[in-house]
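hi!! sorry for the late reply, been swamped w classes. u asked for the two structures so here they r. pasted raw, havent cleaned anything up. first the sequence of the first protein and right below it the tokens
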Amino acid sequence: MGPRVPREKAPWFVQFTTGGRPSTRKRMLFSLAIMLALVVVALVVWLNDPASGFYLLMVVVGLGIALAQVLSVRWIDRNGTWAPSE
């Protein structure tokens, strides 16, 4: 296995979803689950009132953030480390 990339040199989506701070895999997966639950709530509200474009925007943005979280977990597992930078 090659050398691990420090957190400061991670791609922008990893820095965005982790806030640039060290995190744990469990926290990231919990955050992903909460984001997907909020997306489901926004989707249900939007389906009950399709004229409200705000909830559609919330669904799209929420799915984008959830995708970034999935990609971040995958990137950290393959290239980075969950340990804090020293």
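now the second protein. again sequence first, tokens right under
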Amino acid sequence: MSEPTYRPGSYITNHETLDKLCECGWRTSLKTDGRKTDWRGQAASVVFGKLFATCISFLRLNPKSTYYRKDPPDLWDLPSAATLCRNLIESFYVLAYLVESPADQETRDFQKALWDYHAALERHELLRVGVPDSKGLPDVQAEHESARIALEALPTFQQLSERHLAELLKGKAFMLPSKVDLSRALGISEKFFRFHYRHCSSYAHTSPYSVSRLGSLTAGTEKGERAFRIVAGAATAYTALALREFLRLCPDQHDSLSVEIKEAVALSEGMLRDWDSHTYSGKSDS
């Protein structure tokens, strides 16, 4: 995979924008904490807070951010920044999935049962592998079995193909729509998602491609700064849309947004929608 070609206007690259989006999101998370809601709202609130905590960690690695910790050595840690960006992207899609509640009760019941099953499965597998002699293992195993029975009893589950059933029972997914499906529904270019997810994943996995790039991405050089702009641009876009999605659950918070934040959300929507054609005109580098 070749290094992406940076085109002016392809990203929102004013680094102050991400700083301000992060501050706004964190304030919104604190102001809405503790509200009474259903399981989807509770989970979405946790994911929203997690996303902006990840964003703060990301900004502390971004040399252009006011959050950057410039202590000796002056380290440009692109692999960690890209890994955090991928984590942020993952959180965004889970948030968007939780915010969008299906219209029919049958689908809502299925999504809740699948969510509970996946949580029980992971809890059981972690304890079984990590602490196999734990006295609590039988209870955790019973919870896992109970969640499986509840899931398998649902008509929506029974209507799936055998292959899909097997994948869900193995814990390979806890959301029915894929990230590509969610991208299409949310007005996000499939190319934008696929490229940035794969790009960030290469650094998360320490792939040969990522290792080959690191030797040439020197701190303080245009090439090094461009690499950070690409990752920061993706983080900015997904952070802006995360704020948009969460405000669907808390519309009373919309009026508290500054004009600058509303503009950043609108610019991100345009950038993500028009990514394939590269016709979007955004802000320039800071």
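hope this helps!! also noticed smth abt the second:
The chain has twelve helices and no strands.
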